[in-house]
């Protein structure tokens, strides 16, 4: 499938240039589309380790979907503070209050 081909391409780039966060991020997106939450979470984590801040938002979404609310909150807080994308920052800011409520935390 196209998704498998795209993931194979991203994995090849990640293998050749392991410090390239965008490649790990691409793997994470493919894993999200394939509904492999643990694989997506791991790939977004690698992207973040490589300095790709954009991985925080999607890792937060994956973690939220898995019920890992505290971890998702941490990712959304990092997104709201550091992400270069206005859309991701705004989406993270919108998610934070609801996560805090679900965790019993105050604003």
List keywords for this structure.
single chain; 107 residues; 6 helices; mainly alpha
Report what the structure shows.
With 107 residues, the chain is mostly helical. It has 6 helices and no strands. It has helices spanning 2-16, 21-33, 37-49, 55-65, 69-82, 86-102. α3 (37-49) packs antiparallel against α4 (55-65), α4 runs antiparallel to α5 (69-82) and α5 packs antiparallel against α6. The chain is elongated.
Protein topology:
Elements: H1 2-16, H2 21-33, H3 37-49, H4 55-65, H5 69-82, H6 86-102
Rounded to the nearest angstrom, the distance between the terminal CA atoms is 45 Å
- Residue-averaged pLDDT: 93
Q: Kindly name the structural category.
A: mainly alpha
Tell the overall outline: elongated
- Listing every helix as H and every strand as E from the N terminus to the C terminus, the arrangement reads HHHHHH
Q: Helix share of residues?
A: over 70%
Rg from alpha-carbon coordinates: 14 Å
In short:
This protein is 78% helix and 0% strand. With 107 residues, the chain is mainly α.
């Amino acid at each position: 499938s196209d998704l498998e081909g795209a993931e194979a391409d991203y994995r090849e780039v990640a293998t050749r240039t392991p410090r390239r966060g965008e490649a790990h991020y691409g793997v994470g997106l493919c894993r999200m589309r394939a509904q492999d939450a643990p694989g997506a979470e791991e790939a977004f984590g690698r992207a973040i380790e490589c300095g790709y801040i954009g991985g925080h938002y999607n890792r937060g979404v994956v973690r939220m979907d898995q019920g890992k609310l505290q971890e998702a909150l941490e990712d959304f807080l990092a997104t709201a503070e550091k992400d270069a994308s206005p859309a991701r920052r705004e989406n993270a800011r919108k998610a934070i209050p609801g996560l805090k409520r679900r965790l019993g935390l105050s604003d």
